[in-house]
Request: fold
Amino acid sequence: MADTPVAGDLEAPFRFEYAPATLRYAPDAVRSLGTELDEQGYDRALVVCGTTVGETPAVMDPVRDGLGDRLAGVFAETTPAKRLGTAYDGLERFREADADCLVAVGGGSSLDVAKIISILAATDRDPTAVGTAFADSGTIAVPEAALPPIIAVPTTLAGADLSIVAGVTAAPDTCPVDEPASGGVSDPELMPAAACYDPELIATTPRSVLAASAMNGFDKGIETLYAANATPITDATASHGLDLLTEGLLAFGNGDDDPWVYQSVTQGLMLVQYGISRANGTTLSLIHALGHGLTRTDDVQQGAAHGIIAPHALSYLFEQVDGRRSLLADALGVGDADNPGTAVVDRVSEVVTTLGLPTQLRDVAGPDRAEFPEVADAVLEDAFMMNVPSGLEPTRDDIVGVLESAW
Reply:
């Protein structure tokens, strides 16, 4: 892997292959869902969402209105657990509704379940065979047959919309597996056909939910700038996305509900995701690996884990390598600081505290200090660690040190 390109390094080679979703943005974009389906060539959509979203008229009424007679049905049973069994229930509903596409409304959980439904709809393997293979391998094979397309309609700031991956779990009481299992699927065919970004819809989400999801999306922009596979293209989109997110999230955290706030965070969310999930790899790196390690066996919410760990991970990063701190400082609006590394850490901490998120691991339902070595091992084994900046070689003691500093 070549050294991470630095600002102004015009000789650094890169190859950027990316097939994104069609992006639709407007303050009332969700009311154009029927138009988008028409342009995509699909007629009958099954809406996939969680129970809370499905029972929220402020969300579902414009979705129903936007789809009009293209609404084939609603499957409002997704959960954060992202169960394979839930996807099979969704597949049954998809077939009953005679649908030809899926509209995933909500956060990453609903989108991931919709992706698994899409895979199952295109495969001829029975549930027992799929469950057994998943328990053995931790993944689900994507068939060669065409998958029913997905339209993503995010209502949070987690930033799972322009992704070719999906997480999934299985439990014996909901799926034909002997023991609980978890894993994921990655395939270019899982990229949504379109993503509909509507700041008015995002504004309907409770403030606490938006704040809890915000650091997931925010950290995607941060990591994209220092990842080993950074490119000038993702530099541009992530930098502008971080600028919009920083301004919008600080205003949101201070109680500003003006429409520009939701427009800013929505456009920022869209931009920081652009190009980060590609067939030849992702730009997610150290912070996301730490987030996985902290949440793999505990109930700490992913966004909360990201908010707690991000300043400490960045402090460690800047102690070891440059980490493109000047580029990050510019993107976060602190480019004139004498010490850009310190300014970046302080700015990220400011976003966390302004959003009202926890700042210490001891204050959330995460691992105890005695578990930190085990967490560190999981972090070091995480696939996202392949993307840490050139020259950074974390050890178990290093990761434990980051966790201790966050305790």
User: Anything to note?
Assistant: Residues 22-200 form a domain with the Rossmann fold fold (CATH 3.40.50.1970). Residues 1-5 have pLDDT under 50 and may be disordered.
